[in-house]
Design goal:
It contains 44 helices and 23 strands. The chain is an alpha/beta fold. The chain has a 7-stranded mixed β-sheet. Strand 2, helix 2 and strand 3 form a beta-alpha-beta unit.
Length: about 1000
C-alpha cells in the first residue's frame, strides 16, 4: 500500500504546527510514505529546509501552501511544474503584500488568474456556492479533501465532503491534516495553540484538538483508517505523481541593466577592475596582482557571477558619492577584484590571503560579500537598492525569530497556568543556571520541585526552544534578481516601513543558489565619519580611512598600555588584558590581536603557544618549508580559517573543494559534530605526506577550536584597519574622537559616562549641556568638548534642534527659550533637571520654579510661554549628591563628581582601594577594590567564571570571579550597581586583576 501525505503544517505555520520540516520529512521517510507535501499557511518559509531533508532521505517533496481566501474557504495548492511554482510564489506574495505584516488574504479571482501549473485541494467541506467558482478555475485539477480525526463530527464532515465532491464533479482525496511528526508533540501543539489565542491550556477548550490523531501515519495505518475508501487513498499517490516541481530547477540571474551598450557583464567587470588597479597601484600593477586578477576574473566568468560584483560596486559607488563611509569585510577581502573595485580595503595579494576561501569552482556557491556602512545612514543605501531595482526585483533576506531561553520558559509557563510571579521566578533561576534546574534550585526560587505544572513547564520549554515565533529582517542581506523576485520566492511586508522581505533566511538562499549582498550597519564608521568632520571643521585637516597615517609608533605605545576605551574591537576587558601581553608594534599584530580573543583560538589552545613564541619563550618550529610558508606569520600556530584550509591542502592532500568543505563544517552551528568525519582523512593524509601522527592530531585539535567561532584572516584584517584608524584618532585627537563617539550612541562597549571619564583622565576638558551654547550634537570649544542637547534623556531631537536653530545669538530667559523654540513643559523640565538652563536662571530648582510660573505651553495658545507669575522666591539649592543623581538621571553622567567620590568615605572604612591604588599593591596580596559596575561578562569559554569591570573616579578595576564565588554572590552581582570585591591581586606585566573570594554590594 502506498500513501502520500498532502496536508501538512510545520512550525513555519507559526504557532499552528508543532514539528520542524526536517522532522516531518525524516518521519515520512521512516514510515515509508511515497511523498510528502509541506503546506504551511500562506508561506513557503520552511520549504528549503524540507527540500534539503527530502534529498537526504530520498522522499519526494511536493511544493505547496495553504492559501487564505478573503471570499472563500482556505485552499491548498501544489506546484506541478516550474511555471506552477512561480504562480504559487506570486499568489503567496500577493496575499501577504496586500495585508499588514502577519496577515494574508486573496480573492478567489486572483487564485484563478494564477491557476496554471497548479493543483488544488479543499482540505475540508465548505458551502457549494463558495467553492464552485474556484473549482471551475482548476479544470481537472481540483480535489475535495477528506480526513478522519477519530473525534465527534467526523461522520457529518465526511458526508458533507462527499456531497460537495459529487456536486462539483471532482474526486475525493484523503489526508490526515498533519500538525505533528509524532504523537508525543501534542502537548507542545496544545501550548502553541494557547499562546496563539492568548489563553491557558485549561481555558482553550475546543480550540485544542481533542486528541493526537493529526500526526504523520504510515501507509498501513492510513489504509486501515480508510479501508472503506481505497480509491480516495490511492488518489494521494496519483496527485503526488503529477507534481514535478522542485527547488533544484530554480534559475537565478543577477541584474545587469546598467551595462554599457555592446559590452557584456564580464567585459564591463574587467574594464572597471583594470581602472581600479590603476588607482590602487599608481606606480604600476605588480605582476603577482595581474596574475591573481586574471585568475579571479576567469573564475567569476565561469560561474556567471559578474553581475553580482557589478551590482555591489554600484552600491558602494552610490554610498561614496553621498559621503557615506563604507568598507567591505569578511571573505570578500580575499579577493583582488574586490580590492581593485574599491569594495574592500585590504590588498589580498600583499597579505597572501587565500582566494578559494571566497570563491571556488569546486563548490560553485555564491560569494559572500559583507559591506559595512555608517549605521545612521545605511537606510539611504537600502532605499537606493529598492528604488534602483524596484520591489519586484529586490527584497531583504528574512530572519526567523525563535523562542529561546527565558521567553520559551515564560510562554510555556503562562500557557500551562503558572502565575506571573511563578513564571518570573522560574525564568530567573533557569536562565542563571543554564536551564539545568535541580530541585534545590526550584526550592531556592520558592517553587515546589514536585509541582506538576512547574515540571511540565520545564519539559515543554525545552521543546519550545528553537520553535519559530515570527519573521524579522536579516541585519543586511539583500537579494536582487534580473527576473521578478516573486517568481523565485514569496515576498512580504516587513514591520519596518519601506521594507519588504523574502520568506527565506540566509542559509536557505545559499542552499538554493540565490546570491545576496550583505549591506550592514557599523556604528564605528559613523563615529569615524563624524570625527573626520570635526577635525576638518576645528583643525582644518582633511582625513579619511585611506589617509590616516599608518604605523604610528605613538599609537602602538598607547595600545601597549591598553589605553583603548572607545577603540573599535579592542576595547573589551579581554582585549585590554591581551594588549600589554601581545605588545603590538605593527599592523599585522593588530590582525592577530583581534583574532586571538575569540572562542575558537581560546578553546583550541592557540593563545598561550602564540604568546610564548612571540616573546621568545619557546621556538617556532615547522616540520617542512611548505608548512613554514603557511604558518610563519602566526609563529606556527594556525589562527585563521584560511590557514586551516591551506594546511589541509598542503599537508593532508585535500583538494580546494575538500578544504572548503572542512571550512564550512568549522563554520556550522553543529561544527563539533560536523568536523569529526574529516579527522581520519586529515590525519591519514598528513601521514601519507610524511608528517607525524602527533603533529597531524595537534593541528586538527587547533582546527576544532574554530568550531567555537574563529575569524578568517581577511575579516580580521578588515576590522584591524578600523581598529587602527580609531586608535590613531583617540591618540591624536581625543576630544574630537570622544565627541564623535557620544554623537554616535548607542554603539560600542562602554556607556557615555565611561567615555567621558576616560577622556577627562587624558586631560580633555568636558563642558556641560547649556541651551545657550550647546547644539544638538556634542562639539568642540577651544579644544574642550561641549556636551550636546542629544545627551539629555527625554528631550526629543526635534525639540533639541529647535533650541539650536531658534537661538539666533542668545536667549534672554526661560520664557524666551520656550516661546522661540516652542518647547513643551515636560521637555523644559528635563532641560532644567539636567542643568542645561543654569546659564539662564541659575540653580536647577530655580529653573523648575520659573518653568511652572510660565503660562500655557500648548502649541496653539496665544500666551504660549508668557510669564504669568513674577513672584521671586529663594529656593534651597540641591546638595551635591542630589545634583549627581539628577545628572545621571538626565544626562547619564556627571561632570561635577563621580558617584564613587561620594561613596569614598564608606569605601575607605571598608578598606577598599581605588583602581589607581591597585597599581601600588604587590602581586599576591589580599586587597579590596570598589566601584560602579560597568561590565559583567560570563563567556561560554570561561567555564563559569564571571568577569566584572568596576569604574571609580580614578579608572577601571577588573574582578575575576570564580564559579564557586559567583554562585555564592550571585544575588549581589546581579542586584547591585556598586560593588566591592575582595581577593588576591594578580599581575602579569601590566595586566592587573583581582581574583575574588567575595563580592558584596555597597549601600548607603
Amino acid at each position: 500500500m502506498s500513501y502520500a501525505e498532502l496536508v501538512c503544517r510545520s512550525h513555519f505555520s507559526f504557532l499552528h504546527g508543532a514539528s520542524h520540516p526536517e522532522e516531518l520529512v525524516a518521519t515520512a521517510a521512516r514510515l515509508g510514505l511515497s511523498a510528502l507535501a509541506l503546506t504551511d499557511r500562506d508561506g513557503l518559509y520552511g520549504v528549503v529546509k524540507a527540500h534539503l531533508a527530502a534529498k537526504e532521505h530520498g522522499v519526494k517533496l511536493l511544493l505547496g501552501a495553504e492559501l487564505t481566501l478573503e471570499d472563500g474557504p482556505p485552499v491548498v495548492v501544489y506546484a506541478k511544474d516550474a511555471g506552477g511554482y512561480s504562480n504559487l510564489c506570486r499568489l503567496v506574495s500577493h496575499g501577504r503584500m496586500t495585508h499588514p505584516k502577519g496577515e494574508a488574504g486573496l480573492p478567489w479571482r486572483k487564485v484563478a488568474e494564477h491557476a496554471s501549473g497548479l493543483l488544488a485541494l479543499l482540505p475540508g467541506p465548505a458551502p457549494l456556492a463558495a467553492v464552485a467558482p474556484l473549482a471551475e478555475a482548476f479544470p481537472g485539477s481540483f480535489h475535495v479533501g477528506l480526513s478522519r480525526s477519530l473525534s465527534a463530527g467526523d461522520a457529518a464532515r465526511e458526508a458533507r465532503a462527499e456531497a460537495l465532491a459529487r456536486a462539483l464533479g471532482v474526486p475525493l482525496v484523503v489526508h490526515n491534516d498533519v500538525h505533528t511528526h509524532h504523537r508525543d508533540r501534542q502537548p507542545l501543539q496544545d501550548v502553541l495553540t494557547s499562546i496563539r489565542h492568548g489563553v491557558t491550556v485549561d481555558q482553550a477548550g475546543t480550540r485544542l484538538f481533542p486528541n493526537a490523531e493529526r500526526t504523520l501515519k504510515s501507509p498501513t495505518d492510513m489504509a486501515r483508517l480508510f479501508a472503506d475508501r481505497p480509491e480516495a487513498l490511492a488518489r494521494t499517490v496519483e496527485l503526488a505523481s503529477r507534481c514535478e516541481a522542485t527547488l533544484d530547477a530554480l534559475h537565478y540571474r543577477f541584474p545587469e541593466e546598467d551595462l554599457p551598450q555592446g559590452r557584456t557583464a564580464d567585459e564591463h567587470l574587467r574594464v572597471l577592475t583594470e581602472a581600479g588597479l590603476r588607482t590602487r597601484y599608481p606606480e604600476g600593477v605588480p605582476p603577482a596582482v595581474t596574475k591573481q586578477i586574471d585568475h579571479e576574473l576567469r573564475l567569476i566568468a565561469a560561474l556567471d557571477f559578474a553581475g553580482y560584483f557589478l551590482s555591489l560596486w554600484d552600491i558602494v559607488m552610490f554610498a561614496r558619492g553621498r559621503g557615506i563611509l563604507c568598507q567591505g569585510r569578511g571573505s570578500a577581502a580575499n579577493s583582488a577584484v574586490c580590492y581593485a573595485l574599491g569594495i574592500t580595503a585590504i590588498d589580498p595579494v600583499r597579505m597572501g590571503l587565500l582566494f578559494e576561501r571566497f570563491l571556488s569552482m569546486e563548490r560553485k556557491e555564491p560569494p559572500d560579500i559583507d559591506v559595512d556602512f555608517e549605521h545612521e545612514r545605511r537606510e539611504e543605501v537600502l532605499q537606493y537598492v529598492y528604488e534602483k531595482h524596484g520591489r519586484r526585483h529586490a527584497g531583504m533576506v528574512c530572519e526567523v525569530i525563535c523562542y529561546r531561553g527565558r521567553l520559551a520558559l515564560r510562554e510555556a509557563g503562562k500557557a500551562l497556568g503558572l502565575s506571573l510571579d511563578q513564571v518570573d521566578r522560574l525564568s530567573r533561576v533557569a536562565s542563571s543556571h543554564g536551564f539545568q534546574v535541580t530541585p534545590d534550585v526550584l526550592q531556592e526560587a520558592g517553587l515546589s520541585p514536585t509541582d506538576g505544572r512547574v515540571l511540565r513547564t520545564l519539559s515543554v520549554a525545552k521543546e519550545l526552544e528553537g520553535v519559530p515565533r515570527h519573521l524579522s529582517i536579516h541585519v543586511g542581506g539583500f537579494v536582487m534578481t534580473r527576473e521578478p523576485l516573486v517568481d523565485l520566492v514569496p515576498v512580504e511586508n516587513a514591520a519596518m516601513p519601506g521594507r519588504t522581505v523574502i520568506q527565506w533566511e540566509k542559509d536557505d538562499i545559499n542552499a538554493v543558489g540565490l546570491l545576496k549582498v550583505d549591506l550592514l550597519a557599523l556604528g564605528m564608521l559613523t563615529a569615524l565619519s563624524r570625527c573626520f568632520a570635526l577635525i576638518h571643521k576645528h583643525y582644518g585637516r582633511e582625513l579619511s580611512l585611506a589617509t590616516v597615517p599608518p604605523e604610528d609608533p605613538k599609537v602602538y605605545d598607547m595600545l601597549c598600555e591598553a589605553d583603548t576605551v572607545g577603540v573599535f574591537q579592542i576595547e573589551s576587558r579581554a582585549q585590554m588584558n591581551m594588549l600589554p601581553r601581545l605588545r603590538p608594534r605593527e599592523f599585522y599584530d593588530l590582525v592577530v590581536q583581534i583574532a586571538l580573543i575569540r572562542p575558537g583560538p581560546i578553546v583550541g589552545n592557540m593563545v598561550h603557544p602564540y604568546l610564548r613564541r612571540r616573546h621568545g619563550q619557546e621556538p617556532a618550529t615547522y616540520p617542512s618549508e611548505e608548512v613554514r610558508g603557511i604558518l610563519q606569520k602566526t609563529l606556527g600556530v594556525p589562527l585563521f580559517q584560511e590557514q586551516a584550509m591551506r594546511l589541509a591542502m598542503v599537508a593532508a592532500g585535500f583538494s580546494a573543494g575538500e578544504a572548503d568543505g572542512l571550512r564550512r563544517a568549522l563554520s556550522h552551528k553543529q561544527a563539533e559534530a560536523r568536523i569529526l568525519p574529516y579527522r581520519g582523512r586529515f590525519v591519514e593524509g598528513c601521514e601519507a605526506k610524511g608528517y607525524t601522527r602527533k603533529q597531524a592530531e595537534e593541528w586538527f585539535d587547533h582546527f576544532r577550536g574554530f568550531a567555537h567561532y574563529g575569524f578568517p584572516e581577511s575579516h580580521s584584517a578588515s576590522f584591524a584597519l578600523i581598529a587602527y584608524a580609531s586608535s590613531w584618532l583617540k591618540c591624536h585627537y581625543p576630544a574630537a574622537f570622544t565627541a564623535a563617539l557620544l554623537n554616535s550612541q548607542p554603539m560600542g562597549f562602554y556607556a557615555p559616562h565611561t567615555l567621558v571619564a576616560d577622556v577627562q583622565r587624558h586631560g580633555v576638558e568636558v563642558r556641560p549641556v547649556d541651551v545657550r551654547r550647546s547644539g544638538w550634537d556634542c562639539t568642540l570649544e577651544d579644544g574642550a568638548i561641549r556636551l550636546g542637547l542629544r545627551m539629555v534623556r527625554g528631550l526629543s531631537e526635534s525639540a533639541g534642534r529647535a533650541v539650536e536653530t531658534a537661538r539666533r545669538g542668545d536667549y534672554a530667559s526661560v520664557g524666551d527659550l520656550a516661546r522661540r523654540a516652542r518647547i513643551p513643559r515636560h521637555e523644559l523640565t528635563r532641560l532644567a533637571l539636567s542643568g542645561a538652563l543654569a546659564s539662564l536662571c541659575g540653580a536647577r530648582r530655580q529653573a523648575l520654579w520659573e518653568i511652572q510660573a510660565l503660562g500655557p505651553l500648548d502649541a496653539d495658545d496665544l500666551f504660549f510661554g508668557m510669564p504669568m507669575d513674577g513672584t521671586a522666591v529663594e529656593l534651597p539649592p540641591m546638595g551635591v549628591q542630589e545634583r549627581v543623581v539628577a545628572d545621571y538621571d538626565t544626562v547619564g553622567l556627571s561632570l561635577e563628581k563621580h558617584p564613587l567620590e561620594l561613596l569614598r568615605p564608606m569605601l575607605k572604612r571598608m578598606g577598599a582601594v581605588t583602581a589607581e591604588g591597585l597599581k601600588r599593591v604587590s602581586a599576591g596580596r589580599r586587597v579590596k577594590v570598589g566601584g560602579m559596575m560597568i561590565c559583567r561578562q560570563m563567556p561560554p569559554t570561561a567555564k563559569g567564571i564571571c568577569f566584572i569591570s568596576l569604574e571609580d573616579e580614578t579608572g577601571i578595576a577588573n574582578l575575576v570571579v570564580p564559579s564557586e564565588v559567583y554562585a555564592r554572590c550571585r544575588q549581589e552581582i546581579h542586584g547591585a550597581l556598586f560593588l566591592v570585591g575582595e581577593g588576591m591581586l594578580e599581575r602579569s606585566g601590566k595586566v592587573t586583576n583581582v581574583k575574588t573570594r567575595s563580592v558584596v554590594s555597597v549601600r548607603q
